[in-house]
């Protein structure tokens, strides 16, 4: 039985990074307790608040954000944090080495119906001479991530993380420890499962429409196999399914709001999930470019996402050609 800290030490993770991951996991354990208590703790339902992206916040979006902020900003390794639920980055220790971005509660529309949600995080180094409270400190491509991962709060709580040496899974025990339960996760290259919100079909680009039409034709269509479909509406749960049994997940650009490149957020969802997927042998793309190659321009920037099993993503890419 290998505890998270022992496993990280074993993989030569620096003491500073272990200290930071410790704080992140302390926060996630607190969030897990709040989620488990649900209605008993009076934490379900919607708050009065709206975040900077115009989305109504669930009470638990705010609670989770406050927990992560308080714990991380108390950690001397943290120079600043940026969150989906904060208007601007929040500075930490001016001498701190790391920046942390997070989606405190992903899939929060699922909370009140008791379906899986998660916390997504990404760790970057803070550039020399820049405050961790400045947007500019965070304008680093996904390739610069030092570590990334998520905690899925499902029937059990699971941490899935990469520090750039493959992907590992750790399950939260009764005693409150994350214990290594799967090492060097690899996504099957070919599968027969896709995830996309079909209700947006009429808003997609013709390229995506034609790819999904072919998926739906199954063994009678040009792709020659029958596909199954899943849509949880929690990205954490979709990515966990793909890391566990393969598949492809898409939240593509659509014309509902043409000014936005997509619904999902680059810094809190796109980049950390892409790091995990690539480290597990999969691909992650906007349908035209690798997500982790994007040079961010705004902290709350959106991105179109298509990720998962290598062969399935490659097939999707064949339908999308650059002008
Ligand atoms: O409700 P839709 O349009 O299907 O969107 C679902 C997507 O939105 C998200 O819930 C966005 O996350 P938040 O709950 O953090 O806003 C993703 O997890 C999920 O993939
Ligand atoms: Mg989210
Ligand atoms: Mg969220």
TrEMBL record:
Enzyme class label: hydrolase
Cofactor names: Mg(2+)
Cofactor note: Binds 2 magnesium ions per subunit.
Residue ranges of every copy of the Fructose-1-6-bisphosphatase class I N-terminal domain listed in the record: 3-183
Domain Fructose-1-6-bisphosphatase class 1 C-terminal: 187-320
Reaction(s) catalysed by this chain's protein: beta-D-fructose 1,6-bisphosphate + H2O = beta-D-fructose 6-phosphate + phosphate
UniProt key word Phosphoprotein: no
Protein's UniProt keywords contain Hydrolase: yes
InterPro entries to which the protein is assigned, alphabetical: FBPase_C_dom, FBPase_class-1, FBPase_N, FBPtase
Pathway in which the depicted protein is active: Carbohydrate biosynthesis
Binding site for substrate: 106-109, 197, 263
Domain of life: Bacteria
Binding-site positions, Mg(2+) 2: 103, 106, 269
Family matches, as SUPFAM superfamilies: Carbohydrate phosphatase
PANTHER family referenced in this protein's UniProt entry, alphabetically: FRUCTOSE-1,6-BISPHOSPHATASE-RELATED, SEDOHEPTULOSE-1,7-BISPHOSPHATASE, CHLOROPLASTIC
Description of how the protein assembles with itself and partners: Homotetramer.
Protein name: Fructose-1,6-bisphosphatase class 1
Organism: Amphritea balenae
